[in-house]
Amino acid sequence: xxxxxxxxxxxxxxxxxxxxxxxxxxxxxxxxxxxxxxxxxxxxxxxxxxxxxxxxxxxxxxxxxxxxxxxxxxxxxxxxxxxxxxxxxxxxxxxxxxxxxxxxxxxxxxxxxxxxxxxxxxxxxxxxxxxxxxxxxxxxxxxxxxxxxxxxxxxxxxxxxxxxxxxxxxxxxxxxxxxxxxxxxxxxxxxxxxxxxxxxxxxxxxxxxxxxxxxxxxxxxxxx
Length: 224
Known about the structure:
The chain is of the alpha/beta class. It has 2 domains: 2-119, Rossmann fold; 126-220, Orthogonal Bundle (Arc Repressor Mutant, subunit A). It contains 8 helices and 11 strands. The chain has helices at residues 10-22, 33-42, 59-68, 84-93, 105-119, 152-163, 171-178, 187-200; strands spanning 2-6, 26-30, 47-50, 75-79, 97-100, 126-129, 132-135, 140-143, 146-148, 206-211, 215-220. The protein has a 5-stranded parallel sheet, sandwiched between helices. Strands 6-7-8-9 form a 4-stranded antiparallel sheet, with helices on one face. A hairpin with a 3-residue loop joins strand 10 (206-211) and strand 11 (215-220). Helix 6 (152-163) packs across helix 7 (171-178) and helix 6 packs across helix 8. The mean pLDDT is 89.
């Protein structure tokens, strides 16, 4: 899952990026509203963490511009402006959730997971494809009651596929949604990860299908 963190406090941004990266997210850092708008011209994100008191283009203006362009990316406000009127105003502008500074990182991650589930139309934290299950809270895959082990990139790719199970995901969308501009993956490397994943999930009933010229789909084998 790829996030855009818009926060001008570089120390806080670096700390958040480190913790969120350890939790399996790909995080792009923007230190101003202008930086954020530049990224949004070419990149697609699963969610935006947005501070309000930014230099240049303010967080509220960035949020208004997003919604005016009918960009429905989930937005979680992170701000020291925490009065009830502040919260209501920004939710009315189109924010999806609001957390006040200072905050607990566990609460932030819980709100973010909930936000991402809602954006995918899923209420339960557990996503399944065949007997392959993914607990999005614990970030653990299992099949037949046994936990499965993956490298961070394998995990990220499989998570993206299971969140879009039975739907074709193009190679470009897959890499764009998983990796930052500084952490790119070549098409050949992606193919290698897919081969490894197929072997690791082969007993789960789930399978990754290659649709030539289109991309990949995670689905499950039906019994004849």
